[in-house]
């Protein structure tokens, strides 16, 4: 994942990386711009000091990783790699519980090669590592619910609370999904199971969940009340406003299946058909409810919400993988009922598996995203940008520098701060701003892009450098 994009991607990976880097030294103070010499744009998440735009758990994970592996792309992405790898276990187990061990095994096998989650590991998609963490913890909570209905062991109530609380600490209250599904199960089984006992288990698990995510909310509100309240209000606007241009019609998430599984007229209806077949094949009614309502609640909620992004329904992706594999087994089982030779059945299943791998691996998208000419322009600039900042840091060391006019790519002052540790400003500074920084002891660097004003070009106290 580091070699595919050996740089920090623009949206949103570089922001997450910088905040996580700052958390290494101040774990309870999420900071984006550590030295806002000229102030910052108040309540603007991409140019602020205290950064409350996301819940902190995935950032803490990244900070710990960078503490171990260094402040580089590996350190940033390693927690996501681990969580994505761990998804294999949950997918295998749910495939086994819902259908057969064979479906569980091949679903997990296919997921390993799936293009869609792997691209999140590179930081290619917006919200990148935040979505990986949210998917991991939310899907783990759904797994714990299924295991609870399989064994009724109390340990899975505890795990449900821990995983759901962790999901909320990544992407807020949609992490409570498991409790919405569980409430439906309690209602459905009210004749067979004492509702009082199940309600006690429900609220005991929910209490564990609250103990995981509430303390940070209290701490953040008490220490950073302005930023915290603003971000909570901003979060609520997602339901009613298409924020930052992320809108769409009611077909948005249906159409997004083409991004997840490949282009083609029949891809999207085929995925839906496979999911329906999955629900049909599940014999245990509790598992049917878990599978069906987990998917319906997520898709219905985010379809109604005004702000739409492809990663919002990412948590359902593994269920679709299980559905495709289960559909392949369903076809083979139907063929087997008409006395077709086993070698033919095995061949059919193998071909179905190859087709599934072809769809989810989607080598064409990998090529387009990382190797086509348009993407290569971006890659060339990002690689050059990274090398520029790292070379500058190696040359200048830890002296007190300030860099401005970091504008080769929009908001690339964030990348500059990450790789150098120097204050970096994206725009041109006035003479007064330069004098102010110099009075504070900063040596001033301007990136000369050929459009530097004459007053700065003639100022010998300002060092000029080129990309």
Short description:
Helices cover 65% and strands 3% of the residues. By secondary structure, it is mainly α.
Question: Could you characterize the architecture of this molecule?
Answer:
The protein is mainly alpha-helical and 467 residues long. It has two domains: 77-369, no CATH class; 397-465. It has 21 helices and four strands. The protein has helices at residues 13-23, 57-69, 73-98, 101-112, 115-121, 128-151, 154-171, 177-188, 195-223, 225-237, 252-255, 257-261, 267-281, 285-304, 317-336, 342-361, 363-370, 373-396, 413-420, 431-439, 454-457; strands at 401-404, 424-425, 443-447, 462-465. A four-stranded parallel sheet has the order 2-1-3-4. It is globular.
Radius of gyration: 25 Å
Helix/strand/pairing class, anyone?
A: mainly alpha
- Low-confidence runs of at least 5 consecutive residues: none
What is the molecular shape? globular
**What is the helix content?**
55-70%
What's the domain count? 2
Strand percentage, roughly? under 5%
Strand order of the biggest β-sheet: 2-1-3-4
Distance between the termini: 26 Å
Q: Could you spell the SSE succession in H and E letters?
A: HHHHHHHHHHHHHHHHHHEHEHEHE
